[in-house]
Amino acid sequence: MFRLPHGSLIKIVIVLLFVNILLLVKVYPPYKSVTNGSSRHPTNTDGEKTKATVPLNCPYHSDVGPQMTMSTTNLEHFISESNKTKLTFANIDISYGRWDNQHKYKIKDFAVVGEQYTESSKISLICLATQSSVERLYSLPQVAANWIGPMSVALFSAGNEEYIVLKYFVTYMRLCFPNVKANATFHILFPQEYESLPGHLTEPLNIQKKFNCRNPEKTLKFLLKLRTAKTLEWRKRNVYPQNHMRNLARKGCQSKYVFLTDIDIIPSVNSVVQLNNFFKTVDCEKNCAYVIPTFEIDVRASFPQSKESLLALTKKGLARPFHEKVFIYNQYATNFSKWLTLKGNETSVSISHIVTNFEFLYEPFYIALDTVPIHDERFTGYGFTRNSQVYEMYVAGYKFYVLSPVFTCHWGLQRKQARPAWREQQNNANRKKFDSFKSEIFARYKNDPHIKVK
C-alpha cells in the first residue's frame, strides 16, 4: 500500500483546513456591528435602548472598541451587492441630476437613504444636517454614534476619482457603523466640469489592504490615495461650495426642525432624546433659533459624557469655547461663562439665556425651522459663509436662545497660526461680495441694525 511521506500529509491537511476556513467565511461573512461594552446603550427618541452600539470616543484613540477587520474581498462583495440592495452609490446614474440656481453644480438628492431614515424622521422632531468634502468624512461615524436620529449628509465629489472614494467609504461606514446605515441619508453635489475630470483610475485598487472598523480616518486616508494629480490640481483651483452644501443638507431633512452643523462637530451623548423632549414644549414657531454651545476638546481627553464632565475638562484646560484663541468673534456672543455657571437638571433641556450681545461674524450652530433664510451661494470657500446667513437672521428679527445642558464638540485645541495664502484670498473675495449682500438684506427687511462690520 502506497503511503504519503509524513511531511506531505501534514501539508495536505493544512491546505484542506485553509479551504474549509475560506468556505466558512464565504457562507458566513464577518459583517458584525462594532460594539463597545464600556459605553451606555444609545436610546431612540422614545427612550428605548437600540440594538447596537458604536464607539463614543475620539477616533484618534486606540480604545474605541474591539478590533474588527474585513478584507477588501468582502468590501468588493458589498460594492457589487450594492447594485441590488442600494447599499451605496454603485447603482446611481450620475449622468443626470438637477442643477443648482447658477447652473454650476449638478445635484443627486437622496443618493443613498438610511434604512430607518423615513421612520426616524416621523418620530424625531429634529434632523441633523451636515456637509463634507471627501477628506473630512471620517468624522461622520462619531457624529452618528452620538446622534441616534435622522441625519441628512451632503457630499461634494470633484470628479470620478472622488466619487469612487465616496462609494467605497460610504460602503465601509454602512458596514461598520449601524447608525450610519440606519439613519444617515446622503446627497451628492458634482461640479459642472465633472465629465471633463479624470474618468477612470490610473492604477488598480490595492486589494491587499485591510479596512479596520476601529479607524475610519486611516481607512479614508488609504482610499484618498486613489486620486490623481489632475483631480488634486482641480481642487486647488476651485473653491469648496460650502453654502451650496449647507442648503442641500438642509433640504434633505424631513423633520420639523433642522440642526445644521459641519461634519466635524460632534453632538453630546443622548442629545436627540433630550432635544425632542424640549421641542415638544416649544411654543415659538417664528423667528426663533436655539443655539447649541460648541467647545474644542483636547485630543488627549475622552469625549465628555455630560455637561458636568465638560466643565471638569474646561477647568483642566482640556476644553474651551470653539475658536476662542483663533477668532473669538466666531462664538463670543453665546456667552459661555453664563452657560457654564448655570446649574440645573442635567437630563432636561432648557433655555439657559438669550443672546443679547450679538456681533457681526457670530456663527453659532443652532436648531431652527427650515424657514430660516437660505445660505447665500455667492459665498464660496472660506469666509462669510455661515456668518452672513446668521447676520441676515438677525436683521430679519430672529432671537437666539442658548440651550443647556446639550452641547457640541470639535476635536483639537485650535491654534492661531498664519493662514495659507489661498484661504486669505477666498476670505478677501467674499468680503468684497458682502457689501452688496448687506445692501440687499437691508432693503429686503427694511431694517439696518447698525452693527459694526469688522
Structure description:
By secondary structure, this protein is of the alpha/beta class. The chain has 2 domains: about 50-260, no CATH class; about 265-454, no CATH class. The protein contains 14 helices and 16 strands. The chain has helices at about 5-25, 70-85, 115-125, 140-145, 160-175, 180-185, 215-225, 230-235, 240-250, 270-280, 305-315, 335-340, 385-395, 420-445; strands at about 70, 100, 105-110, 125-130, 150-155, 185-190, 210, 255-260, 265, 290, 295, 320, 350-355, 365-370, 400-405, 410. The strands form 3 sheets. A 10-stranded mixed beta sheet has the order 2-3-6-5-4-8-14-10-15-13. Strands 9-16-11-12 form a 4-stranded mixed beta sheet. The model is unreliable at about 20-75 and about 200-205 (pLDDT under 50).
Gyration radius, rounded: 24 Å
Unreliable segments of 5+ consecutive residues: 19-73, 200-204
Helical fraction equals: 25-40%
Structural class: alpha/beta
Question: CA-to-CA gap between the ends?
Answer: 96 Å
Q: What are the secondary-structure elements, in order, as H or E?
A: HEHEEHEHEHHEEHHHEEHEEHEHEEHEEH
Q: Overall mean pLDDT score?
A: 79
Q: Any idea what the shape is?
A: globular
Biggest sheet: strand arrangement: 2-3-6-5-4-8-14-10-15-13
How would a crystallographer describe the biggest sheet? 10 strands, mixed
